Structures are given as C-alpha cells and as structure tokens.
C-alpha cells in the first residue's frame, strides 16, 4: 500500500465519521464540528485524487486543478461555519440553549 | 515498509484518533480543542500530499480561524449544555452507524479502484501557464483558468457577511460587531497581540506577493492578515469598525468588484469575459490579487467578529 | 428596428448574454451593499426589469437560433476552463426566476421599505441585498456547465436563502434556520464529494465532456456510480424530497411571506434541476432507469405524505408549506416516465417530449402558483394579524381579491382545467398510461384529490361561511393584491398556451432528453 492510498482510506473513514456525528450528536455545536470533519474528509479524498494525477505525469507534485478547488472549498466551509456559529450564538442569546431540535418543535 | 510510510501511517492514525475524539468527547471544549489539533495534523498531510498551497490554507483557515470561531461559542454555552445530553436513541445510532459505514466502505472501495493511470489536468495547466505570466500553477488555476470560481467565491464571503450581520439583535444595526470583547489589559494575550501583528502582517503580505510564483496567494495571505487583525481586536488594541461605515463596505467589495471589472474589460480587450490581454496579464493579476487579499482579510476578520451589537453601558462612556 | 434584425443582434451577442445574466445581480448586489441605506432598495428595484429583460433575451436567442447558447469563460475551454451554457430548459428556468423575482420584489416593497432619512434598517438592508444574492445564485445554477462551479453556485444559494428565512430574529425561526443550514451544508458537501469522484474518474468536471466519456465505449467507472448516488442524496436533501424534507416546514413557519415565496417557488427547484441534469445529462440511460424508480417512489411518498399533513395543519402558511412537499413530489415522477424501459426501447420515443413538457409545466406553474399563495397568505396574515385556518370563515368578503388570487392559484395546484397545473398533470398522466406504468397514474390522481381536500378546507369556509367576516386589523394595499393576482393568473394561463409553443423546452437535448448531442 502506498501513502496516497493510505490517506485516501483515511479520508473515506473521516467522511463516515463526520456523517455519523452529524446524525447522532446532540446540540448544534457538535454537529457543526462533525460537518467540518466530514468536509475535511471530502477535501482529503480530493487531495488524494490530485496527488495521483500529479504523480502519474510529472513524477512529483500534485495536479493543481483539484488543489485550487480545495482551497476554494476550505474558504467556503469556513464561511458556512461562521454563519452556523452566528445562528447558534443568536439562538443562545435568545433562549440560553443550543438544543435546536426542541426549539424548532415548539412552534409547530 | 519504508520509514516514510510508517510516519504516514502514524499521521493517518493520529488524525483518525483525533477525529473520533471530537465526536466522542464528553465536553464541548474538549471537542473543539481536539478539532484544532486535528486541523494542524491535516495540514501536515497536505504537505505529505505535495499540496503546500492547500497546507497553508488549511493551517490558516481550516484549523486557525475555524478553531477561534468554535472556541468563541464553546465557552459561551450554558453550563447545562456543556455536557452533552443523552445522545440519539439506540436505533438511530444503529441506523446512522450502518449508513455511515456503508458510505465509508463504498468510498474506500472507490479509492482502491480509481483508474490507473490517473486522469489529470497537470500537463494542460503546465502548457498554458506561460500565457498568464505566473509561476505557481495553483494561482494560475485560481485566477485565470477557473477565475469564475474564485470570483464567485469572493462573492460568497460578501453573502456570508450579509448573513451574519443580518442576525444583529435589536438596536444593534449600524453598531460595531460584538463578539470580540477585549481581554484584560496586561495579560499574556495583549503582549502577544503587540508582538505578533507586525510579523504577521509581513508574513501575510509576503504570502500574497510570492503567491504568483511560489505557494501562497490571496486566500492564504488574507487569512494571516485576518488572524492578526482578530488578535489585535481581542487584545483591545483596536476595535471592530461599525458596520454602517461606508469605507468598510468598500473594502469588503473592492476585491470582487475589481475582479469583475477587469473581467468585463476582458470582453473588449481579450475577446472573453475574465480573459486577460497577454501583454498585461501579470500586472492585472497582481492588482486583482492585492485587492482580493484586502477584501478577504476584512471579510474573514469580520466573520469572526460577529453581528453588530448595541454597545454596553460601560463601552458607551470611554 | 425590425424584429428579425434585433434577434440577429441578440445572437451575435450570444454567450455574453449568459455572462450578463450571471453578473448583473452580482454587480447590483455589491453596489447595494456598498451604498446601503435607501440605495439598496432602489438598486434592487432597478435591477428587476433589467434582469427580466436579459432572461427574455436569452430565451429569444435560444428559440430563434434553435440552439443552446454557450461560452467558455476567459477563453479557456473545458476541461481546463469553465463553460456556461443555456439550453431551452435553462432559458425557461431563468425566465421563471426573473418573473417570480419581479413579482416578489414589487410585493416586498411595503414590508421592507427603507425609512426616509439617512439611517438604514437591518431588515431592509438585508432583504434587498439578499434578494439580489438569491437571484445571482439561481442564475449561476441554471447556467453552470461545470460540476464544481455548480457547487459554488449551490453554496451561494445556501448563503442567500438562510438569512432571508430568519429575518424576524425570534428563537424558533433561528432554530429552524439553523436546522435548514445543517441540511443544506450536508447536501453541498455530499455534492462536492460526488464532483471530486467524477474528476478522479474522468479528469473533467464539464457536464458535456463527462457525458461523452461516460456514454463512450469504456466501461463505467465505479466511482461515477457512487458519485451520482452521493450527489443525488445531497441534492434531494436540499430539494426537501421525502424523507429528508424535515427542514422545510419549520423554515417557512417564521419566514417573511416574500422569503417563503422565493424559497418554495425557486430555491428548492434549483437543486431539483441539478438532479435532473445528473441523471439525464451525465449518467447512462440504463442506470437512469434504475435510479428513476427510486426517485419516483420517494416522490410518490412525498405526494401522499405532504398532502395528508397539509390537511392537518392549523395555520394557513404551514398548509402551503406542506403542499410544497407534495407538489415537489410530482417533479420526481418525471424520471421513470422519461426513462422507462418502454420509451428507451422505442427508437421514436413518442411520449417523452410530452413528459418533458409536463414536468417543466409543473415546475413553472407550481413556482408561480406557490409564490402567489404564500404572498396571498402573507396579505391575509398581515391584515388579520393571524392565519389560523379555523378563523378565516367569511374572509372572502373582507379580502375578495386576495382570496380570488389564492383560489385560482389553488386551481392550478389541484390540476383543474384550465390551468398550467392541469396541463402538467394531464401530460404526466397520459405518459404514465402510455408507458404502462399505471401505478404512477393512481398516485397523481390521489395527489390531486388530497390537494382538492386541503384547499377546500380553506376556501369553502372563506367563501361561503355565513358568519360576519373577521374585521381586518389593517387594510390591504391594492397594488400588492394586483401583484399576487398577476402571478396566479400566469400559473393558470400557462394551461391555455398551445403545446407547440413549448418547443423551447426541447432545444439543446435530443427527443428523449437522455444524453447530450
């Protein structure tokens, strides 16, 4: 097994882990962290694809196209996290709890 | 098994371990600290995958700024919420486990079955890079070949700012963002905030400037500058600007606006939207990158500073 | 100037029209953001007619040139560069978006007017900039030809839609917005994963090139299959397809009427549009047939489940929200009717054009009807101070025009003639019959009955109750009623347009809609 495959498998596992956390964890903060894990697994898989593409032709290096896309994706993921955290902090200000499932039920 | 592979195996296992920790940790603070450590290790993986540009972004944004954001909210959770309440029921967990394992298993199979030789655009990028006058292929993709993504992404940051600001509580509109309250004077943080920014600003500008030819660029440079600004705000050396300030709003849109303007000019000068006339490609790209660095730094910093809030009574009388 | 000369000029502008459609709202948004105050509203209102004109121009150019518009951005051809493309379907989506945007913008003036004087208010600034933001995002989705560019477009959509939903800032609304955000982000990240796998398998993200590679002689890469499945799951969560619809009703509960109209009429359609593109423009026929059965089964469940829950709602707005879940279900019935083994084996594919037209009519007429209904419900709620269905008896006499608009939009939703909804459901029904898939026919009929039942619950007492009508707390602005009525009328009049006028839908795809030329 090569290092590239190893990190690819690691990325696959992280996607599963993030998905699991996103479904079962209570409270918004932990889900936000799980979303970031999931995203990082996706980026890692993309990075592995880039490394394979770079290694195949030039001997060393990594395909620059996926690298650029990952950088874009990282910035977008940060902006998404910021919006989620902003919503959560406003919710805490209003209710003092981050348990949004029940707060959502209350209105129905 | 070679020594390098053993190191990589250790790295992969540490990442997985930290990942499991952020999901399983009992305290929210523990989970956040675990995530920050995780992000730093992932940055190392990017170096191992020969993606130094990504590694810089991951360290600055993925781990650094995201970590600050998460820490800011974790410490504010009420005591009752810090210990996670009982997790989802057994059946939900079982179902989620099966689903997640299936997805992970499928992806693992895909990783092992990816075509060989791998399809790649690396030669195509290398062949066309001279037309842009750039030396760093990643910057070439970001600012020339796939310029539309980068343009729209800098617009995403403006959207995110509007979104965060729109959450301003009552009476908060037009005021200063309220999340970054200064730490007590004379603390270690203040000292750090006085020492670091001059160095950090140099590093940020350097990252932007070398991005044309070496790893770095607008996003990495902007992220470092944003981190320095945030540090100075936490230390109370400077206050976040009021969101109603027109100059602030101009700084936030100057990057995407200039990018868009040069893009439109390209229709006449080079025949296509977002095309650069060959003779001026490099200087135009540097101007766009400079404006983007500024806008990105401002946007990232303000995303960490939160929505505007009415000043407290103490702040009203300095 | 002669019409044909004008059209020739349009064709000469060609691909730059697409750039204009994408960049006009972006530029307006940045200007509105920088100037703020009353300027934000003025800039947004000035953008409305311009954007509509561009959408009309694109549709005219596609129809007149009888070919899709296409442009390689920066002059870099895919796979290295990114392309924009508008075929007939994209043109129709752009046009629908523009029409609904104009109506919602005019309707929202009264709710989000910036105060006179220098200071700006939070709600006004946020609404007008986000309206432009949403428009930019939708146009990016409908024009995108590159899977990653479409990912950025989807994220633009998320960032525009979520703050719009929670403008009121109350705790339940914030909680609903947070839940919506988590679903949307999960959807985007699964979509991105799929795009990455497509790149890993084929080295391109361009939809046309992927279709050519996948449709070629090489065996299908396993990565492509998993990629399409992940993307579909992610996009279904964003479309609020049963059973991942949980975020949609609470998101509507506290949203301003204008935001609800945009969310149900347009935002959820964007992700549906991408599911359509993945299965009909990228993946091979045989796989599309299998996926079609699953998607349609979920759609059928949504029709029944959404209808039953709509019947049980106490608030008018929530009834309309659950109705959206049901009506979105119809869209997913298009898949097995287009991609049935029956049609694929016939070289002529006789009924497929009808299915396409039916599906697109359902999409467009639902967009207009649902936006009209949410705005009508908003007028009722603003006028009475509540929207409890049981207390709406006799409202027809107090607000006749609003209720008339609500009623005729409902006509289209139920699928009664003459309306766009009727034509849509009729085309789907006859396609189900012709391709021997009678079970989908039963679902369509049952869905129609349920729609009739939940609308009867509102309309019968509103029109015929003998008790004195509830006294409106606030009078309703007549010009806003006209906007709602106009949109409702469009959804009905679509049913009177002769079918041959819909040839635009077919431009840029072969008869079956499977695979690109």
Automatic annotation (TrEMBL), chain A:
Q: Quote the cellular component terms of the Gene Ontology held in the record.
A: plasma membrane
Which Pfam families has this protein been placed in? Answer: Oxidored_q2
Task: State the InterPro entries in the record.
Answer: CPA3_antiporter_subunitC, NUOK/Mnh_C1-like
Q: Where in the cell is it found?
A: Cell membrane
| Aminoacyl-tRNA synthetase recorded as keyword | no
Q: Which UniProt keywords apply?
A: Cell membrane, Membrane, Transmembrane, Transmembrane helix
Transmembrane annotation, as ranges: 6-25, 32-49, 69-88
Note the topology in the membrane.
Answer: Multi-pass membrane protein
Family of the protein in this entry: Belongs to the CPA3 antiporters (TC 2.A.63) subunit C family.
Designated name of the protein: NADH-quinone oxidoreductase subunit K
Tell me the lineage of the source organism.
Bacteria, Pseudomonadati, Pseudomonadota, Gammaproteobacteria, Chromatiales
TrEMBL record, chain B:
What residue stretches are annotated with the MrpA C-terminal/MbhD domain?
Answer: 15-79
**InterPro entries in the record:** CPA3_antiporter_subunitB (IPR050622), MnhB (IPR007182), MrpA_C/MbhD (IPR025383)
Domain Na+/H+ antiporter MnhB subunit-related protein positions:
190-297
Which one Pfam family would you cite for this protein? MbhD
Bilayer topology reads:
Multi-pass membrane protein
As for family, the record states: Belongs to the CPA3 antiporters (TC 2.A.63) subunit B family.
The protein's name in its UniProt record: DUF4040 domain-containing protein
Q: Species name for this entry?
A: Allochromatium humboldtianum
UniProtKB/TrEMBL annotation, chain C:
Pfam families per record: Proton_antipo_M
Q: Name one GO cellular component term.
A: endomembrane system
UniProt KW keywords: Membrane, Transmembrane, Transmembrane helix
Kindly give the membrane topology term recorded for this protein: Multi-pass membrane protein
Q: Where in the cell is it found?
A: Endomembrane system; Membrane
First and last residue of the signal peptide: none
Q: Please state every residue range assigned to the domain named NADH:quinone oxidoreductase/Mrp antiporter transmembrane.
A: 145-450
Where are its TM segments located?
Answer: 12-36, 43-64, 88-110, 122-142, 148-168, 180-202, 222-248, 260-280, 286-311, 318-339, 359-386, 398-417, 437-456, 482-507
Q: Name one GO molecular function term.
A: NADH dehydrogenase (ubiquinone) activity
Entry's Gene Ontology BP terms: ATP synthesis coupled electron transport
Name of the protein in question? NADH-quinone oxidoreductase subunit J
Q: Which organism was this protein described from? A: Allochromatium humboldtianum
